[in-house]
Write a structure and sequence with these properties.
The structure holds two protein chains of two kinds. By secondary structure, chain A is an all-alpha fold. Chain A has helices at residues 5-29, 33-49, 52-57, 80-103, 110-129, 133-151, 158-190, 201-206, 208-218, 221-235, 244-247, 253-261, 264-279, 282-304, 309-329, 333-364, 380-394, 400-418, 424-447, 466-484, 486-501, 518-533, 537-550, 556-578, 583-605, 620-638, 642-662, 666-686, 698-724, 732-745, 750-758, 760-783, 792-802, 808-820; strands at 60-67, 72-78. Classes of the chains: A mainly alpha, B mainly alpha.
Chain lengths: 821, 155
Amino acid sequence: MSPDLAMVVAAVALPFVAAGLTPLLFRLLDERTGYAGALVAMTSFALLASQYSVATTSPGTVALAWIPSIDVALRFYVDGWGLLFALLASGIGTLIFLYSPAYMHGESHLARFYAALLAFMGSIIGVALAADLIAIFLFWELTSLASFVLIGHYTDDDSSQYAARMAMLVTVGGGLFLLVGFILLSIVAVDVPAVESAYNLAAMLENPDAMQSALRDRGLFVPVLGLLAIGAGSKSAQVPLHFWLPNAMAAPTPVSAFLHSATMVKVGVYFVGRVRPILVGEEWLILFATLGLTTMTVCAILAVAATDIKELLAYSTASHLGLMIAGFGFTSIYGAETGVFHLLNHALFKAALFLVAGIVAHEAGTRRIDALGGLRHDLPVTAAITTIVALSMAGIPPFNGFYSKELLFEAAVEASHYHDIGALGWLYPAVAVFGSIFTVLYSLRFLGLFFGSRPDGLGDVHEPSIMLILPPAVLAALAAVVSVDPQLAVRVIVQSGVDATATDPEAMHVGLPTSYSTPVGMSAIAIGVGFAAYPFYDRIHDAIRSVPAASPPVSANWWYDAVVGNLTGVGSWLGSRVHNGLLRTYATWTLAATSAFALVGFAATVAVAPADLVGVDATPAIALVLAVAVVAALAVVTSDSHVAGILTLSILGFMIAIFYILASAPDLALTQLVVETLLLVIFLLVIEEIPEYYEVDLGRVARDAVLSVAVGATVFVTVLLTTDASPEGSTDVARYYAENAVPEGGGTNIVNVILVDFRGFDTLGELVVVALAAISILTLIVMRSGGGDETGTDDTRADDVTADDTRADETGIDDTGGADR
Amino acid sequence: MTTTVIMRTTARVIVPIILVVSISLFVEGHNLPGGGFIGGVLTTTAFAIVYLAFGLDFLERGVLGRDVDPGKEPSRDRVVVAYRRVFEYGLAIAVVSGLVPLLFGRAFLTQTFWEFEGVPIYHHVEVASALAFDFGVYCVVVGGLLTILSVVGAE
C-alpha cells in the first residue's frame, strides 16, 4: 500500500493548471472566479484527503521521472507531516477563495490576483509533498515568486511595490542559501550507501543517523545546518530577517490571511521539521531554540508596538513562527509535539484573525488600533469568532493555543536534561515566559477592538455579508473543536506528524493540566502578568515605540533600507562608470577582465615556470621575421599619425603571416594575409573620420599602457602554456585526420576537410557568430546616438577573427594595437 | 572621400583579379590551401577596395544604375539589405546542407564526395558535398563582413 501517484500529482498540478486557465475563467465568471478557485482548492483538498489512510499508516514515496540523467525526479513523499501541511494549505485556501470575491469586490486586476493565488497554493502543496531536493527548491522559489505578485498586487502603490521587492529579496535570497545547503547535502548523500539517489530526501529521512554521521565525517554538518537555517529563517521571518513580514501587509487581506497562516511563512517551519531527524543534535538545539525564542520575544514586543491591526497580526505571526522554530529546536519529543501541534493551531486561529481584520477594515473603513473599539454591538458574530481565536492566540486555557504553548514550556524546561547547555537551561524557559507575556498583551489588545467604549470618530458599522463571515466562522469552529478535545486532533493527524519529525516518536497526550507542574506555573505567570499589565498597555506601547525612534539602527528595517539603498547607489555609480556609452570604456573593461580572469586561472592551476623558456629553437628565417615583427610593434606605439600606425600594424600582421608560412601552415598564412589586407583596407576607409592625434593626459596613457601589457602578457602566457603542452610527434587525433582526409572527406587539404567535414558543426557555430556580429553591428549603428566608435571596426573584426580560434594570438596583438590608440 | 586617378585606375585592374583569385581559392579549398572563409574574406577585400576608390554609393549608382537618396539610414540601404540577405541565405545553405544527409539516414552534417572522369579540359573532377556547406560559409563571411563594412563606412 503506497500513495497513489496520480492523486498526488493531480493535487499539486491542478492549481497550476487552473492558474493558467484563470484568464479564460475570468471572462466567463468575472468576479465569481474566486468560487471556481475555491472549487479547485477543494478538489486538491479531497485528492490529498484520499491519501490520508496511507500517509498515517504506511508513508511512502511516489516519483515521476523528470531529469533521469542526473537522478532528479518529481518525488512526492506522503506522510502525516507533509499531508498536514498540504491539507492546511488547500483547506484554508478554499476558505480564502470563498472570502475573496466579497472582499475584493470591484477591484481591478482580479484575473492576475486569482491566477497568482492559485499558483501560490500549488507551490505550497508542492513544497509540502516534494521529497527531491531540486523539486523542493523549485517549489520553494515558486512560492517566493507568487508571493511577490500577490504582495505587489496594488502595482501603482509605492509601499506595495516596496514590500513586494523586500519580500522577494529576502525570501529568494534565503532560498539561494538553501540551494547551496541542498547541494552540500547531495554531495554527502552520494557516499551514503543506503541513499540511492543524491537528491532523494525521502531516502535520507529513512537513514537519518547514517546521513548525520556522513555529514560530520565530511565536516559539513555545521555549514549545512547554517545554510538550511538561513533559508528557512528568511522564509519564516526569523530575527533578524523578520522585517519583510509586517511590510507584506501591503497585500490585500485575503492574501495576508493565506500568507501568514497556512502557507509561505510556514514553509520554513515545515522544512525545519522535515529535516529535523537528520540534523538534530546539540548544535541544532542551540541554533534553533535561540533563534526561535529570540524571534518569539522580539516580534511579540514589536506586535505590542503596532498601530495597525494588520501590523499587529503580522508581528504576532512572526512571533508564533519563532515559537514553532523554537519548539522544533528542542531535541526532546516535546519539541516535535510543540512544532507540529502549534503549526495546526496557529493556522486555524491566525487565518481567522486576519479574515476578521479584513472584515473590520472593510466595514469600519480604518485599520488604526486607537480608532477602533466597542465593535461588539455592531459586529456581534465577528466578536464571538474573535473571542475564540484571540484567546487561543494568547494561549489561555482551555483554548487550543494553550496546549501547544504548554508543550513549548515543557520542552524548554526539559532541554537541560538532554544536553549540557549551562545557563541556557534556565534562560530558555525564562525567555519563553517573557515572550508569552507580550503575546497575552497583544492578543488582549486585539480583542479590545470589540470591547470597551466606541470612539466618537467611528462611523456606521454593520455586520458584513455571509461570505465574509463564513470562512472565519469555520476556522473558529475548528479551533473550538480542537480546544474542547485536543486529543481528537492528535489522533487524526498530529500524532503522525510528530512521528515524522521526532527522532524517538512516542504516543502524544495533551489535555488540561490536573495537577501543578513547572509548565503550568510558567503559563500561570505569563497569563497573570499579561492581564495585570494590560491596563498599562498604552504606556508600554509608547515606551517600545520610542526606542527605534531614538536610535534607528535598532530596527532591522533600517538596516535593510541602508543596505539596499547603498547597493542601489553603488550600482548606479558603477553602471555610470562601466556603461558610459564610450566604446573605449567597454573595451578597457572587457579586455582587463578577460586578462585578469585568464591570468588568475593560470596562476591558480599551473605554475608558469620560466625554465620552460630554455631550448627555444628557431631557424634564422623565423627569427628574422619575428624580429621584424617586434620592431613593427614598437613602431606602432611610437608612430605619430594614424596612417603610419596602421601601416606599421599591417607590417606586423604580414610578418606573422610569413611566420606561418615558414612554420608550414599555408592555410593559416593565407587566412592571416587576407584578413590583414581587409583590415588595412577598412582602416583606410574609416581613417578620414578619425580625429587627428590629440594630447591625452598621463593617466590615460598609463591606463592604456597597463592594459596593453596585461593583454600582451595574457596572450604570451597562453601561447607559452598551450604550446608547452604539445606532445612529442603526432597525436592520435592528428593521425586520424591525416589518414582519413582523402578516403573519408575526399580532399587533400586536411585543414579544410576538418573545417567542413570532420568538425563541420564547429564551423556552423562560427558562422552563427559571424552572422551575429554583423547583426549586432547593424543594431549598434542604427541605435547609436553619438559616442566615439573609432575602434568599432577594430573590435568587430576582432570578434570575427576570434570566431576562428586558431588565430587567437593574432587577435591579441590586434587588440593591443586597438588599446594603444 | 577624395580619391586619386591612380587609385581608381588601379582598382579597376585589381578588383577583377582579386575576385577571380578569391573564387578559385574557394573552389580549390578542398585540396589546396583556401576554402570558404578565406575566399569570403578576399571577396570582401575586393568590395572594400571598390568602396575605397569610388565611394559607398558607387555600387548602386554606377553598377545598378539607380539613384541614391543620400539622407537614408545606412541600415535601410538596398545594398545593405542585399548583403544581409547574403549572410542570411548563407546560414540557411549551411544548415540545409547539413540537414540533407538526414534524408539518407546519416548523421547531421555528414559529407561525401563524387568523382567524375573524362570531363573536358579538367579530365578528373572531384566534387565534395562539403562544397555546399563551404558555400554557405563563403556567403556568411561575405554578407556579414560587407554588412559591417558598408554600415560602418556609411557613418
